[in-house]
Amino acid sequence: MTVPAPSPARGRRGTRDSEDPGRAVASARRLHRNALDAATADRHPAAIRWMRRGLALLEIPGIDPQERLEVRTRLRNTLAFCLAETGNVDDGLTQLAGVDQELSGLRDEALRAQLSTKVNLNRAALLCRVGRVDEGVAQLDLEIDRSERRLAARRAAPGVPGSGVPDPGVSGPGAADTEAVDLLALALSNRGNAHGEAHRVDRAVRDLDRAVALARTHDLPLRAAIAEHALGNVVQRAGDIPAALRHYQDASRAFQELEPGLLLRLRIDQAEAMISVGLADEAGRLLDEVLPELRRQRIGQDVAEAELFRAAAALQDGDLVLAKRMAGAAQRKLLRRGSPAWAAVAGLIALRVDVSKALGFRRPPARVVARAIALSAELAALKLADQAAFALVLAARVEIRRGAPDRAADLLRGVPATRRITPIDHRMLLRLCRAELALARGNRRVALAQAKAGLAELGRMRDRLGGLELVSGTAVHGRELGELAVRLVLDGGDSTANAKRLFTWLERTRAQLYRYDPVESDADSELGERIAEVRRLSRALLRARLDGLPTARLEVLLKAGQRAANQLGWSATPWGTPRPVVTAEEVLARLAGRAMVSYAIAGDELTAVVLVDDRVRLVRLGSAAAVTEDARRLHADLDALAPDHLPPPLLGVISASARREAEKLDRVLLRPLAPMIGDRELVVVPTGTLYVVPWGVLPTCANRPTTAVPSATAWVSAVREDRHPANGVLLVRGPGLQAAQGEIDLLAGYHGDAKLLGVAEAKVGAVLEALDGVELAHIAAHGEHEPENALFSRLELVDGAMFAHEVGRVRHPPHQVVLAACELALNRVRPGDEPLGFAGALLASGARTVIAASSRVGDQPSAAAMADFHRNLSGGASPAVALADAVAVDPLRRPFVCLGSG
């Protein structure tokens, strides 16, 4: 925030008193304090109203001219800032110039100097706000120097409390007057923010650290939180997203307590961080929440920036219409405000939309190239080097598509080398463009080398991130590079050597989340508290709905709680230590008589890489779109079959439809592979919508042990022997399952040493504690997959929901987990085939095998399937073998899948 922190005292609204000058001045001062509070909280319209009332009060006769001038200067200074925030910056700067002129009439030199500093700090803040960073920093340099000399003189003066302390940054409370220290902390914060905008990271961090220290030493918690927020912005621009998210978390906690109005600006910066790591949908939802309030408060710059980042989120999510609309709205506002730098950045997003469309043409129009080159020059003149380079790369991509590789090469020669602080999406686009240029010139080797280098660079960024969602989200930045590499390899033919190359590229580009050995997080204790609050809100929301009570407020609180829990995970230590991608030879050595089928989609072509015995083969299977539609239809039919007591005619119709869809999928996915796989056990690596397929439903997999895994690398990790020791069996019965009582009792008979948690004992904390270190855990409970927020997919226990967030952080997860519940094998599949859900969280955290349903399942079929499964398991069968036999009894109503090692 760029205005001084509010005084602790809050005055009542002033009232007009045309006969009492003293009361009028006192009321004007109270109105200014109220206005400062509102301005600090970004409530600018309210601040403007109070300041105009205060200025009107000062017009009555009889007020001492010097006192009138002082109070009027304070009001006009803050008013200028607020008018600039809600209107045009030049108007604000003009107002401040008028304040400068009035200040010359103030006879008290010390007061004049203090007020002059406040005016200059606001002027500098406005200059930086619209991209005139160097002008703003020059102003701040002067004011910081003056403030430090003023504080030094105060400390050295006889009789001043705290004199003799050498550094205001480490002096105790009372060493200097609070307002003077606050002004210095404000100036340091603003200069740190400005240095951060200019990518002068070391200077920015030095200023902001000092601002935090000053504010904390002198008991200015809001000023410290504002500097903490600014630190988040600086390290975000430097590419350290986890550190940025930690600073944002610290600032958010303080803002919640001290000044919730500042959360709106913080949310914009959090959304920018989310976009940088591929969480566009989460960023979009967050911005959709804050934009209405920003518009209501008429915070012009913040509205425009929020719209700009909403456009960036929509672009990343593939919604080109929304991206173009939001970018245009932001650009118009920024031009009206006199923010040419920000307006040019909005123009760059609009250009990206148009380039995305143009690349779909056989020959994109030349005007797109000309526009990109012109915008690059504009951005360079505004000293936005990274954005200028990005625009040139966009121009080069269009030239390549237009069949002009030499012109594209000339453009790329004008792109400077990437720096440590260059955003990851910029770096990936440059790699992609160089790969496309090499391909246009017939050099496949260089194209693949660029793709490999780019994905490795993305992997190094991923290695530093915390939280499952962050690690999986980053894949979006490498999507096009990976797709290009896979297409290139597929164009190379169907030889064994090419099949191995394709397998390697698939492992480089898919499900990277699952190739980490998780480490214990330092956010676990606070995360547990946040999730407990989400659980409480979830139950309160359910009760309100059942009772027919209003739910809007609870829904808002629940979303906020889920977001806070997610962000704690994101800002934690790195999720884990990466394992190397496996080779085809390593997989063949582990298969031990099994066959592995790894599916891939390139364009509309579905292919399979088959690994069996000592051979690797590539098989082209046909249209991916047709298979995708068949998989969706089968999933819908299986959901419809779930209820326990369907009327026989309806049961017959839906069953017939499901069998037809299963037959169609089988003809495409597995029958062409039959000569290769024979009757072996299968390990399947799905892609896209194939993650919803319960493989035991397909005729080729009838009674065939089949295991689904997110990647071959994940499977090799799951079958390795160097796991933490585990022992014992845990059986958990959740509430509301009619068949669960008998089911759990029956299963206990198969496992004589089993620990049972009945409905009353099956509380979240008890279940999580019991899961730690157990060999086999079976949980019979209602469950639900949460597609928009996968880590809040849940199992319902007696005291509320147990979330994927929690099971994913069990210190020593069970070796085998059975989830006798609906849909918990489902995942949200991000770009790069990054599946995430309840079962996925277990696998990512180190569970070897998870048995779960990929669609809804009735209580009775579930109980019967689990009884058969455990009988087979207790007889010595592996989980995959035991499940295949259990599912074969009634495949359509037992849509369970074996995930992990098998």
UniProtKB/TrEMBL annotation:
- Name assigned to this protein: CHAT domain-containing protein
The record ties this protein, via Gene3D superfamilies, to: Tetratricopeptide repeat domain
Pfam families according to UniProt: CHAT
Q: What is the lineage of its organism?
A: Bacteria, Bacillati, Actinomycetota, Actinomycetes, Pseudonocardiales
InterPro entries reported in the protein's UniProt record:
CHAT_dom, TPR-like_helical_dom_sf, TPR_rpt
- Domain named CHAT: which ranges? 660-886
Record the organism.
Answer: Saccharothrix lopnurensis
| Chain spans, region Disordered | 1-23
